[in-house]
Amino acid sequence: VAVIGAGAAGLCAGRHLIAEPNQFQFDIYEQQDDVGGTWRYSTHIGQDQYGLPVHSSMYKNLRTNFPKEVMAYPGFPFEESEGRSFLHHTEVLKYLQDYAKHYGLYEYIKFHKLIENIRPLKQEDGSVEWAVSFRDVVTKEKETYIYDAVMVCNGHYSVPYMPEIEGLNDFKARLIHSHDYREPQDFKDLKVVVLGAGASGIDIAIEVSEVAKEVRSFLLHHFDSMFQHTYA
Question: Can you give the pTM of this predicted structure?
Answer without folding.
Answer: 0.89
